[in-house]
Amino acid sequence: MPTGTSIYAIPCSAGRPKRRSQRRATSSLSVRASTDVSTVTLLDYGAGNVRSVRNAIRHLGLGIRDVRSPEDILAADRLVFPGVGAFGSAMDVLTRTGMADALREYIRRDRPFLGICLGLQLLFDSSEENGPVSGLGVIPGVVRRFDSSKGLIVPHIGWNALEITKDTQLLQGADGHHVYFVHSYHALPSDANKDWISSVCNYGESFISSISMGNIQAVQFHPEKSGATGLSILKNFLSPNSSGSKVPPRRKASNLAKRVIACLDVRSNDSGDLVVTKGDQYDVRDHSSSKEVRNLGKPVDLASQYYIDGADEVSFLNITGFRDFPLGDLPMLEVLRCASEKVFVPLTVGGGIRDFTDANGRYYSSLEVASEYFRSGADKISIGSDAVFAAEAYLQTGVKTGKSSLEQISRVYGNQAVVVSIDPRRVYAKNPEEVPFKTVKVSSKGPLGEEYAWYQCTVSGGRDSRPIGAYELAKVVEELGAGEILLNCIDCDGQGCGFDIDLVKMVSDAVTIPVIASSGAGAVEHFSEVFEKTNASAALAAGIFHRKEVPILAVKEHLVDAGVEVRV
C-alpha cells in the first residue's frame, strides 16, 4: 500500500477510527471480547525481552493472558503488543499465524490497544528496514532509518524528552520527563497521519513518539524500561480510571540525556556463592594473604538499589562466562530473572555469548544462548571475545558470513540489542608508523617518553592479547551489526583516575553508534570530563558505586550543574 493511504479514513469528531478498506476479509474472525478487568492480553510472538513488559504489568497488579491464536486477539478486553526485533521478521510471523488480520480487525473495532516500540511501527503502511516491507496499514506513513550520514548516532538509544501534542489519558503526568528509547527506525509526521499523533520527540528531526486515536494507543519508547514515569504511563492504559500520584520532574527534560550506568561484575566466590566483585586492572582477588574474591554484595540487591538511586541502566557482566557454558549457569540466569522483576530500566548482560558444544555433544548456537538471556530478562546482550574473533576473520577475508554471534543476534533481534564490549590495553609507540594500527597522541607520555599509543584488544577477560586495535575493532563490529560499544580500558580499571579520554575520543569519533565510556571513574568530575571532551553517549562505573564512595545522585547533580542533560 503506498504511503499516505490507510485502511482507515481520518477519524470523525468522535475520535473513533473508521474503516475505509481492508487487504483481507476478516468476517470469519468473529469472537466476543472478554470482560476481565484484572487481566490484560499480551501478544508475544517470541522475539526479544517481553519478560520486562510482563514484570511491569504484574508489578501494577494485573494478570496476563497470552495470545496463542488469532481468536485470542479478538477476545481480548485490553491488548498489549510489545513488538521487538526486525520489522520484516515480525510481519512474517504475524501474517503466517493469521494474527495480522486479527490485529487489523481488533483495531478496526476500536478495542483498547497499546503497541510498544515495534508495536507502533508495525501500524504504519511499510518500513524500509530490509525492505520495503508492508506493515498493518493502519496509519499512513513509511518507517525509515535515522540518517547517520548527518552525524547522528544510530541507534537512538537513551532517555529523551517527549513533546506532547495531544491531551491524552495515556501520557498524563509524562510531560517534562525523560523516557527510554532504543531504535534505529522511526516514523515521521505528515499531513496524512497528523491526527493520530499524540507526541513527538526530537533526534536530528522530529519523529512520532506516540499515537492516540480512540482506544488505539502506541508508543515508540519503552514504558516498561522508563522507570517510575513509564510505569505511570502503563498504569494509565491498564487502569484508566485509577488515580495515581503524578510526580513533577525535578528538572524539565529537553533533549537526549547522557546516561549513567551501574555495572555489576558477577562471578562465584571460592565458596560457590554468586557475588558482585570488582577488579583492579581485571584482578578481582584481594591483595591480602587470603587472596579471596572481593565480595561487594548480592547482585539482585545491588541492582535494585541502583535502580532506586537513579541509574539509567544496569549492566551484569558474568566475568567467568568465557570459561563455562553460560546456559549451564543457572544461578546467573536466575539473578537476571529476579532483577528484571525489580528493575524497570534497561538490563544488559554479557559473558560467554558464543557458539558452544556441551559435554554431551549437543551444539548450541550463540543465538540460542542470547535468546535464553533475553527470555530471562535482558534487554541487551554484550559480546566480548567472540566479537574480536569475528572481526579478525572479517578483516582477513572481507566476507560477512552471517554466522558470527554478532551477525546472527543483530539480524534476529536488531542491532540495538547487541553491545560489543572492548577490552584494550595501552601500548606506547615513539612513532605512529611503528605499528599497523590506529594510534593517538596521548595526553600523558609513556614511561620512555613516548608520545603515541595504540590500544591492543584482549580476550578471555583481558588474559590474552590479540593482533587488532580498539579503533579497528570498533569500526568492524559496527559494520557487522553492533548497535553499541562498551569501551573499557585495562590500564584505567580500578585506578579511580578518570576515563581514558584519548581512547574514548578516538573510538567515539570513529563510529556512528553509541559508545559507553568505562573504566577509571573515581570522582563526579570524571563523568563531566568524558562527556565534555568526547562523543560518549554514556559513562559506566562500578567500584565507586559498590563501595558507596560516589552516589549515583551525586553524579547526576554534578552533571546538571555542569550543564549536561541527564535524567534526574
Q: What structural keywords apply?
A:
568 residues, 8-stranded parallel beta barrel, glutamine amidotransferase, disordered N terminus, lyase activity, 26% helix, multifunctional enzyme, Rossmann fold
Description:
The chain is an alpha/beta fold and 568 residues long. It has 2 domains: 218 residues, Class I glutamine amidotransferase (GATase) domain (Rossmann fold, 3-Layer(aba) Sandwich), CATH 3.40.50.880; 257 residues, Aldolase class I (TIM Barrel, Alpha-Beta Barrel). The protein is built from 16 helices and 31 strands. Strands 4-3-5-6-16-15-14-11 form an 8-stranded mixed beta sheet. An 8-stranded parallel β-barrel has the order 17-19-20-23-24-29-30-31, surrounded by 9 helices. Strands 8-7-9-13 form a 4-stranded mixed beta sheet, with helices on one face. It is globular.
How are the elements arranged and paired?
Layout: E1 8-9, E2 18-19, E3 39-42, H1 51-59, E4 63-66, H2 70-74, E5 79-83, H3 87-96, H4 99-108, E6 113-117, H5 118-121, E7 124-127, E8 133-134, E9 139-145, E10 156-161, E11 163-164, E12 178-183, E13 185-187, E14 197-202, E15 206-213, E16 216-219, H6 227-238, E17 259-268, E18 274-277, H7 299-309, E19 313-318, H8 330-340, E20 347-350, E21 356-357, E22 363-364, H9 366-376, E23 380-383, H10 385-397, H11 405-413, E24 418-422, E25 424-429, E26 440-441, E27 452-459, E28 464-469, H12 470-480, E29 484-487, H13 501-510, E30 515-517, H14 524-533, E31 538-541, H15 543-546, H16 552-561
Parallel strand pairs: 3-4, 3-5, 5-6, 6-16, 7-9, 17-19, 17-31, 19-20, 20-23, 23-24, 24-29, 29-30, 30-31
Antiparallel strand pairs: 1-2, 7-8, 9-13, 10-12, 11-14, 14-15, 15-16, 17-18, 21-22, 25-27, 26-27, 27-28
